[in-house]
Amino acid sequence: MYHCPVDDEQTSRLFELADLILAVGRQIHASKEFASREFASEPWTPLESAVMRFIDRNPGTSARAAAEATQLISSNFSRAVRGLEKKGLVHRETDQDDARRIRLYPTARAHENLRQLREIWSGLLDGIVSDTDEIEAVTSVLRRIETQLTAKSLATSDTTGKSG
Q1: 31 conformational bin, left if phi > 0, alpha if psi -120 to 50, beta if neither
Q2: Looking at residue 6, what DSSP letter applies?
Q3: Which of 5, 78, 120, 155 is 20 to 30 A away from residue 36, measured at CA?
Q4: 95 by DSSP, 3-state: which?
């Protein structure tokens, strides 16, 4: 895939976009840490958050598919799943069609945690961004950025033989 060289002005704009995404992410992450203390639940590591997000959106996923989607090396992925299991957020089931394959599912506790995060994060952003069209536009752009960054990363790991 060929990309035109990016000029200095565009480089600065893209850097600021990435920097702002990280800054907003830190603020949101900090609110999650506060909520963990408030609801007496254990905090999640960033790796656990990535794995939990995928499992929640894809219940019954195979461990292999989840590891690939989260772009984690096997040992990091396994550690994250074990941590989530220990916290009561994920459970494993043997695949009915292939006993060698394990399926991952969120637990009721994970659903409750997600409900709490939904309330906390919605409350955090309430009044900051309230125009429905603006919310949809930002969400659409961020979803596209995530999708294309994931595809780019997977393509790079496929050509270099690396993952992680």
Answers
A1: alpha
A2: P
A3: 78
A4: coil
Reported pTM: 0.73
Confidence of residue 163 (pLDDT cuts 50, 70, 90): very low
For the CA atoms of the chain, what is the radius of gyration? 18
CB 30 within 8 A of CB 123: no
Choosing among 1.10.10.10, 3.20.20.140, 3.30.980.40, 2.70.70.10, the CATH entry for 43-122 is 1.10.10.10
Helix (H) or strand (E) holding 16: helix 8-38
* Pair of tokens at residue 35: 């909520």
Rounded Cα distance, 87 and 42, in Å = 7
